[in-house]
Amino acid sequence: MSSSTLSEGRKQFIVDGVTQDCRADGRRCIDFRRFQIETGIVSNTNGSARLRQYGTDVLVGIKAEIGQPKQERSNTGHLEFYVDCSSYNTTEIDGHIGDFTTQLTKSLERIYDSENVLDLKSLTIIAGEQVWVLYIDAVVLECCGNLLDCISIAVKAALYNTRIPGVSVNDEEGVLELEISDDPNDEKKLSIDKVPVIVSCNKIGHRYVVDATQEEECCSSGRLLIAVNDRNNICSLQKSGTGSLDPSTIFEMIETARQAAVPLNQELLQTLKREERSNNDKCGFFAN
Amino acid sequence: MRKDYQLPKFYDRLVCRTGAVSQAVGSAYIELRNTKIICAVYGPREVAKKQEFNIQATVACELKFATFSCRRRRRHIQDSQEKEYSQIIVQALQPVVRLDKYPKSQIDIFITVLQNDGSVLGGAITAASVALADSGIEIFDVAIGCCLRQIGDLSLIDPTYLEEEGRLNNEEEDEIVTNANVTIALLPSLNQVSALIMNGELDVDSTQRIIKDCLEGCIRIYPVVRECLTKSLEEKMSRN
Amino acid sequence: MAAEVGNPVIPGQRLGSIDQFSAGLGTYVRQRHIYASLVGYKDIISQAGQLPKIQIKTGNVSCNLPTIGKVVTAKVLNVNPRFCRVLIICIGTTPLKEPFKGTIRKEDIRATEKDKVDMYNCFKPGDAVLAEVISLGDPRSYYLSTAKNELGVIFAKSTAGHPMVPISWTEMQCPHTEKIELRKVAGIKYWTDS
């Protein structure tokens, strides 16, 4: 929501509520909103996931294609991100929408496209020439605050759901030919134990909240993005927003985010495993 | 590659001059070992784009690597990495400028990296702050940027390009080798952090430690910046 | 007591406490202390009956923005029946490095008989006018007014291309062709005295 559409009285109400650990919807400062996650809903992708929360709907699709490796990292595969916000009401974003999506895309790339997160070496087919490139595209259908966190959870679920087909390399008279197998049993799963989720901590007044709604984001004077993985290690930090933060506040925010991320990661993994086992027939997006 | 953890003396690290671009309202030139960055500030001037009426000033930044500055030739159009750096620098400098003093105007910061040998973001933030101070635009404090790279047990302040890109790989399966880098912008007098980017995988204690080390790196640059601004003030006064 | 020229300071340095001094140009107050916000020399000015004021003396020209009440010099860009657009090129006596856009609305041209104003008899494109800033206006331009005796056209060229001489509050004459053209003339002291 554009900050100019929120009245001063409403802003004060939110700040006072946060100070007393009771937010506008009744949550505590470190509570996440409940969300629903489904995987494997788009058949044309190698992996997909959809996250639904009150007011938020994000769809992530992963397509794996064979391509050239990046110049600096010729022995590993890589990830390419794109966030599409066009369905999301553009008047609600402060500033140019291109800058907004660039910021999201670059943050995701910086956090996820790294050896610390995924075993990118396993995506190599022919070292230096042909690698698997994972194109991760997020479509934001609607959003009620905390967009980057939601996209990161959906990306993690989609990566869990991703199956990469097996490739055999045939050397015929010096020309290397790649054959992609159609056998569903010959598919590779990706290991997601080092994949982090992003927890954004917003500073409102003198306290900080996790999983901010749109209104709370308008009142925040500084935001710290913290990426925490299953091993409870910090993968990335980024300060965004126009205010400045005290170093001690930063350390407290890191600790708060880590505590909030522990149940989040555990629940997410359990839900994903449960979904994989049950193998429900997907019957369309808006059917249920 | 440096084998020892050494926080080098600040005079060896940073060379800083103002007045590099005579046409600009304020400008600065920074050399951080082999990295060379030049920054020009224009404004406060009319808001160029058709934006909403803003009772405060807007800060806009454009960072560009010169096409010959990196190991591989860069494109002449701003790519996504440069756009991201520009946005980070805007976020680092917005808390610093007294925006309410210049209603309905825009302050433009143009940064060109002439030679990239690592620590670009930290150097660019420092260059932009020095240029703002030189321009006579009122600011709360001079923001100082600093980069730190953690490879295994080594902490390297102001890493060179090779040190930034290099990685230590796991020699054994179970060993976790930390590869992390962090860039911080600090406002020394106010003791506030206006930009923080960290990448890698670290536990909470190591994260706190590298942030503290990087903050100390920023504090050590402060005297150099202060001396540069004081010297340029004396030169300006003696010219008038 | 004369003001003392003190040490060079940079933004963020503490200058004094608000119990003993008051904040002047180039400083700001935070948590009961005065800090510098410009690069310059610390200057303490005594004031009768008040706390001495700390300000910063700089070598720079201070940043100039059109603020309400300032008299500016502007060049007329285009004229239309409701308002005319101008380009602000000087604020007071300081020329600007980069101009700002301004608008003079029909009702702000004169103080009296505002509804009987004909825009084309007041300004023409290319004229230099003295005007006062009355509002920050809209995102595209500042709002200016010439509704005072000393404000209005100070320089204009005739249709023949020669600089004209003012002959009354509403008329200017070309010295070569002796043709009279209508303008809203500024009553600058030099002209009104003679």
From TrEMBL, chain A:
UniProt entry tagged with the keyword Cytoplasm: yes
GO molecular function: mRNA 3'-UTR AU-rich region binding
Entry-linked InterPro entries: ExoRNase_PH_dom1, ExoRNase_PH_dom2, ExoRNase_PH_dom2_sf, Exosome_comp_Rrp42_subfam, PNPase/RNase_PH_dom_sf, Ribosomal_Su5_D2-typ_SF
GO cellular component: cytoplasmic exosome (RNase complex); nuclear exosome (RNase complex); nucleolus
All copies of domain Exoribonuclease phosphorolytic, residue ranges: 31-165, 195-259
Coiled coil, from the record: none
GO biological process: exonucleolytic trimming to generate mature 3'-end of 5.8S rRNA from tricistronic rRNA transcript (SSU-rRNA, 5.8S rRNA, LSU-rRNA); nuclear mRNA surveillance; nuclear polyadenylation-dependent rRNA catabolic process; rRNA catabolic process; TRAMP-dependent tRNA surveillance pathway; U1 snRNA 3'-end processing; U4 snRNA 3'-end processing; U5 snRNA 3'-end processing
Pfam families: RNase_PH, RNase_PH_C
SUPFAM superfamilies: Ribonuclease PH domain 2-like (SSF55666), Ribosomal protein S5 domain 2-like (SSF54211)
Origin: domain of life: Eukaryota
Subcellular location: Cytoplasm; Nucleus, Nucleolus
Entry keyword set: Cytoplasm, Exosome
PANTHER family for the chain: EXOSOME COMPLEX COMPONENT RRP42, EXOSOME COMPLEX EXONUCLEASE RIBOSOMAL RNA PROCESSING PROTEIN
Family of this protein: Belongs to the RNase PH family.
Protein name: Ribosomal RNA-processing protein 42
Organism: Trichoplax adhaerens (Trichoplax reptans)
From TrEMBL, chain B:
GO molecular function, a single term: RNA binding
Chief place where the protein resides: cytoplasm
Organism the protein comes from: Trichoplax adhaerens
Protein's name according to its UniProt entry: Exosome complex component MTR3
InterPro entries membership: ExoRNase_PH_dom1 (IPR001247), ExoRNase_PH_dom2_sf (IPR036345), PNPase/RNase_PH_dom_sf (IPR027408), Ribosomal_Su5_D2-typ_SF (IPR020568), RNase_PH (IPR050080)
PANTHER family on file: EXOSOME COMPLEX COMPONENT, EXOSOME COMPLEX COMPONENT MTR3
Residue span, Exoribonuclease phosphorolytic domain: 14-138
Swiss-Prot/TrEMBL GO biological process terms: nuclear mRNA surveillance; poly(A)-dependent snoRNA 3'-end processing; rRNA catabolic process; rRNA processing; U4 snRNA 3'-end processing
Location relative to the cell: Cytoplasm; Nucleus, Nucleolus
Keyword Cell cycle on entry: no
The protein's role, per its UniProt record: Non-catalytic component of the RNA exosome complex which has 3'->5' exoribonuclease activity and participates in a multitude of cellular RNA processing and degradation events.
Assigned keywords, A-Z: Cytoplasm, Exosome, Nucleus, RNA-binding, rRNA processing
SUPFAM superfamilies hit by this protein: Ribonuclease PH domain 2-like, Ribosomal protein S5 domain 2-like
CDD domains, alphabetized: RNase_PH_MTR3
Gene Ontology CC entries for this record: cytoplasmic exosome (RNase complex); nuclear exosome (RNase complex); nucleolus
Subunit structure: Component of the RNA exosome complex.
Family membership noted in the UniProt record: Belongs to the RNase PH family.
Automatic annotation (TrEMBL), chain C:
Alphabetized SUPFAM superfamilies for the sequence: Nucleic acid-binding proteins, Ribosomal L27 protein-like
GO biological process, one term: RNA processing
Any single GO CC term annotated in Swiss-Prot or TrEMBL for this entry: nucleolus
Keyword DNA repair appears in the UniProt entry: no
A GO term for molecular function: RNA binding
Designated name of the protein: S1 motif domain-containing protein
Domain Exosome complex component CSL4 C-terminal: 96-136
Primary location: nucleus
Every Exosome complex component N-terminal domain range: 9-44
A UniProt-annotated Pfam family: ECR1_N
PANTHER family (alphabetical): 3'-5' EXORIBONUCLEASE CSL4-RELATED, EXOSOME COMPLEX COMPONENT CSL4
Cellular compartments annotated: Nucleus, Nucleolus
InterPro entries: Csl4, EXOSC1_C, Exosome_cplx_N_dom, NA-bd_OB-fold
Keywords assigned: Cytoplasm, Exosome
